[in-house]
Amino acid sequence: MLHHVVMWQLRDENRQVNLAEAVRLLRSCSAITPGILKFEVAAAQPGLACTSDLVLNSSFVDRAALSAYQAHPDHEAIKPFMKSVVAARQCMDYET
Fold first, then answer.
1. Pairing of strands 54-60, 86-95
2. What total number of domains does the chain contain?
3. Chain mean position to CA 70
4. What whole-number distance in Å separates Cα of residue 49 and Cα of residue 41?
5. Which CA distances in Å does 50 have to 35, 39, 53?
6. What is the C-alpha separation between 21 and 34, in angstroms, rounded?
7. Residue 81 falls in which region: left (phi positive, over 0), alpha (psi -120 to 50) or beta
8. Are 38 and 82 in contact (CB under 8 A)?
9. What is the band of 78 on the pLDDT scale with cuts at 50, 70, 90?
10. What is the domain-level CATH number for residue 70?
11. What is the average pLDDT across 77-93?
12. Which structural domain, as residue segments, surrounds residue 51?
């Protein structure tokens, strides 16, 4: 199994509006290809410790499934928006 975790910090300008849109767009990709085992999208919650505004915690059956997800046109379509609102991005992929 391949785990794919991505965390984003958004720019200050229109942060809440952009955060809601980013959550919506990411969730729309939750089942776009076979091999997605887990796909959690969450925004930072007031009162809980966090260093990021948004997280994607996902798992795939294998590297090929992750590659198919990343190359899918629906996933590619959200990248311009994400790049326009993101100040910083962290990513980690690991196998178990």
1. unpaired
2. 1
3. 11
4. 17
5. 29, 19, 8
6. 24
7. alpha
8. no
9. very high
10. 3.30.70.100
11. 98
12. 2-95
